[in-house]
Structure formats: structure tokens, C-alpha cells
Design a protein that fits this description.
This is Thioredoxin peroxidase. GO terms for molecular function: thioredoxin peroxidase activity. Belongs to the peroxiredoxin family. AhpC/Prx1 subfamily. The chain is an alpha+beta fold. The protein has six helices and nine strands. It has helices spanning 49-59, 61-66, 79-87, 109-113, 164-180, 199-208, and strands at 14-18, 22-27, 36-41, 69-75, 102-104, 120-123, 129-132, 139-144, 150-156. The strands form two sheets. A seven-stranded mixed sheet has the order 2-1-5-4-3-8-9. The longest helix is centred in the C-terminal third of the chain and has 17 residues, at 164-180. It is globular and about 65 Å long.
């Protein structure tokens, strides 16, 4: 699994559904330059853990927006599949009400470039392409800063849902560092004291905590 932290986030241009129902064909991250982005991958439309995550992110959308963060979801389903799922009511298993963009990684290149694609492609002795396992995305999450650099990444196996509050905490940690020049110790949350990255700084922090 590649570590993208500290590197520029891989770019892409793909179809996506925005605002809960409008399909666009050339969605990119470039439009968010100067903003933070939480880019998260999920395995499949019309499944079970995935809608719980999608709605959990939607419930916190205002909190992300207040921090100048754009949410972008990605799966390897088509834009038509995304659109159909978005038209279904929540009590029927749909995700109607999700308003942030959902990108269609139909050719799986985005998932490959972020190294979150489950399964493997290979060639047999007859020169035929073969696949081991389903070629769908793991639950990857990437925090991208205003310059397009990945500052945090998390990859969960398919059955394991993520904690949206932790994603917000990581945004707060990055913004605290940028605004105050202080690093964020274990279990830091917004409003708590950071520390200066010196021997005296850590000694002072530990003496108080």
C-alpha cells in the first residue's frame, strides 16, 4: 500500500454526480485549489456499510464547510449507478439527500493511483487478463491541503466503517498547525493546547497533562 502523505494528490478528470442529481463529465479536484479536500473512497453502491458512511459525512457537511473543506466521495460504480442510488429514498435503501459530489471511477484508475483498489489484475499464459478478487475500492480517506498535498490518509478493509469525527479532528489538527505553528499531541481536539516541537515544549506539555 503506497503512502501518499507528503506528496501531491493524484489528479483525475472523471464523471460525477453533484448536488444529488446532476451528472458532470469532467469533475476534477483542481476546482478546489485553495480549499481543503476530504477525498474518500467506498466499495459499492446499493450496499450496507457504505450508506451509513455517506449519510454520516452528509450530517457533518456544514462542519466541514465551516472549515473550508470540500467532501468528495469516489467508488468504482458508474455515474448512472450513483444517480439511481441518489434518487432512492433512505427508507428504501437509497441515499437521497446526499449533496456532495460522488465520482464514478469506472475505469478504476483513480482507485489505482490512490492505491486503494482491492483485488489484483494479471495476465495468464495465454495472454488473457485475469482478476483475483473484486476490483472495488477499499475504504480509503485522504486529507488534501490547500496546495493539493496529501497530509493524512487512512485505509480500512471493506467491512470496517470510518469515524467521521476523526476526519474532522484531523482537519482541525492540520489547521491548528498552520495557524499556530504548534504540533498536536495524542488525542488532541480543537480547543485544547498544542505544543511546540522542542524539548522544553514537550516537557512543559507533559508536566501539565
Amino acid at each position: 500500500m503506497s503512502v501518499l502523505v507528503g506528496r501531491q494528490a493524484p489528479g483525475f478528470s472523471a464523471s460525477a454526480v453533484i448536488d444529488g442529481g446532476n451528472i458532470v463529465n469532467d469533475f476534477t479536484l483542481e476546482q478546489f485549489k485553495g480549499k481543503y479536500v476530504i477525498l474518500f473512497f467506498y466499495p459499492k453502491d446499493f450496499t450496507f456499510v457504505c450508506p451509513t458512511e455517506l449519510f454520516a459525512f452528509q450530517e457533518k457537511l456544514a462542519e466541514f464547510k465551516s472549515r473550508n473543506v470540500e467532501l468528495v466521495a469516489v467508488s468504482t460504480d458508474t455515474e448512472q449507478s450513483h444517480w439511481g442510488w441518489l434518487q432512492m429514498e433512505k427508507n428504501h435503501g437509497g441515499i437521497k439527500g446526499i449533496t456532495y459530489p460522488i465520482v464514478a471511477d469506472t475505469n478504476k484508475t483513480i482507485s489505482m493511483n490512490y492505491d486503494v483498489l482491492a483485488g489484483e489484475l494479471d495476465w495468464n499464459d495465454e495472454g488473457e487478463m485475469i482478476a483475483t478478487g473484486e476490483l472495488i475500492a477499499y475504504r480509503g480517506l485522504f486529507l488534501i491541503d490547500r496546495e493539493g498535498k496529501v497530509r493524512h490518509q487512512l485505509v480500512n478493509d471493506l467491512p470496517l466503517g470510518r469515524n467521521v469525527d476523526e476526519a474532522i479532528r484531523m482537519v482541525d489538527s492540520l489547521q491548528h498547525l498552520e495557524e499556530n505553528g504548534e504540533v498536536c499531541p495524542a488525542n488532541w481536539v480543537k480547543g485544547k493546547e498544542g505544543l511546540t516541537a522542542t524539548h522544553d515544549g514537550i516537557a512543559d506539555y507533559l508536566s501539565k497533562n
